[in-house]
Design a protein that fits this description.
Length: about 400
């Protein structure tokens, strides 16, 4: 005779499941999930189940409140008891069948992504994920990879993400086209090192030779832009910023020719409509007037045509032993320390500048340079790794 237990009085039986014990960290994760608007819905539901179970609710009560079956609720409670609350929130990784796309097919996708569409008969310069996936599907059989006949954009994305590859993007680089790049770079760095030594001796009160080093370059294309409507000022409690109309009027451009003294930070500058040999020799004439006649002016500059033109050579010939050129390598203008001065101008008085005439732009630039000269800053080059490597070699 087999006897079955009978529940008397319609009372629910006591659950035989263990209590779920969790740490404060797990509790914080569960509460955060239940309030999240971006987490996957399934994880939010599972977090709600575990919190309700912790609160003492039965499986039946939980299933009714979250509108899930008792089996599903029991499954996630049981998983939390077995592996922990945070692990129970995630689905166990499973693969129902072996992947159909083999390594050779993946390699073909990567090889295709590393080629240009124009080389394969398309108009585009670079691939998009969609165009690459379409090409893969259309040429999969021809390439001997039938598994890729139905490859979606997401499939191609996953294959490229394994590398990772971004054939839709372009990263620019600068090719070194000067065969004497290294030697010219070292020459410039040696000048900077010599200037640092001279400045140190001068600060110590020692006498130094009459050689003045200046860094020279041009900043072309500074736009003279006028407003078509007045700027509106900020208003406390209403508008925190200046308001400016989107439309503007172009009044031309100017070029800033500047010579930065590497000993004391003084700037000798001109603002011109163009930057030809005429304007450059005028800057050299300003330097000739500013510095004592017994000094040699060592000029660091790039290979701009105005710096080495016939007119400039004629001017230099009329001032023998006055100027000494130190040329930066081709595509090496970043070695010219005056670029830091132009960056300072762009961040200060040139920022958001609007004028009513070209002449106003010229006057405001010269005024900004005068303000810098009122409290000059010595620009120093501090990175001499290339010279140190040569010494070690």
């Amino acid at each position: 005779m087999i006897c079955f237990p009978v529940k008397l009085g319609g009372m629910a039986g006591k659950s035989r499941r263990s209590k779920l014990s969790i740490s404060d960290e797990d509790m914080a994760v569960l509460k955060e999930l239940t309030q999240s608007r971006t987490a996957p819905r399934r994880e939010v539901q599972r977090a709600e189940i575990l919190l309700k179970y912790l609160a003492g609710e039965s499986i039946t009560q939980i299933s009714r409140s979250v509108r899930m079956t008792r089996a599903s609720v029991a499954k996630w409670v049981g998983k939390a008891l077995a592996v922990g609350p945070q692990a129970a929130l995630k689905d166990t990784y499973h693969r129902p069948k072996a992947p159909e796309i083999g390594d050779d097919a993946r390699a073909w996708v990567v090889h295709t992504a590393c080629s240009k569409p124009k080389d394969l008969g398309y108009a585009a310069e670079t691939w998009s994920r969609q165009s690459l996936a379409k090409h893969i599907r259309e040429h999969a059989m021809e390439a001997g990879h039938p598994a890729l006949q139905k490859a979606a954009k997401a499939t191609v994305h996953r294959i490229l993400a394994e590398q990772p590859l971004h054939p839709e993007k372009i990263k620019y680089y600068l090719e070194r086209r000067d065969p004497e790049f290294e030697s010219k770079m070292r020459a410039v760095l040696m000048v900077y090192q010599d200037v640092a030594l001279r400045n140190g001796k001068q600060e110590a009160g020692e006498s130094i030779s009459n050689v003045i080093t200046v860094s020279v370059d041009e900043k072309p294309g500074v736009q003279a832009i006028a407003n078509t409507a007045p700027d509106l000022p900020p208003a406390a409690g209403k508008h925190s910023k200046w308001a400016r109309d989107h439309e503007y009027k172009r009044l031309g451009t100017c070029s800033i020719l500047a010579a930065l003294d590497l000993q004391d930070g003084h700037i000798t500058a001109r603002v011109e409509e163009r930057h030809r040999s005429v304007e450059f020799t005028a800057l050299l004439a300003d330097l000739d007037v500013y510095y004592p006649p017994e000094c040699t002016i060592r000029v660091i500059l790039d290979n701009h045509s105005a710096h080495i033109s016939k007119e400039t050579r004629v001017f230099l010939a009329k001032h023998p032993n006055r100027f000494q050129y130190v040329l930066t390598p081709k595509h090496g203008s970043w070695l010219n320390i005056v670029e830091t001065l132009f960056g300072k101008m762009a961040r200060t008085f040139l920022r958001h500048i609007r004028v009513k005439s070209w002449e106003e732009l010229r006057n405001r630039i010269l005024k900004g340079i005068a303000e810098i000269n009122a409290a000059p800053v010595v620009h120093r080059w501090k990175k001499f790794d290339a010279l140190q490597q040569d010494q070690l070699a």
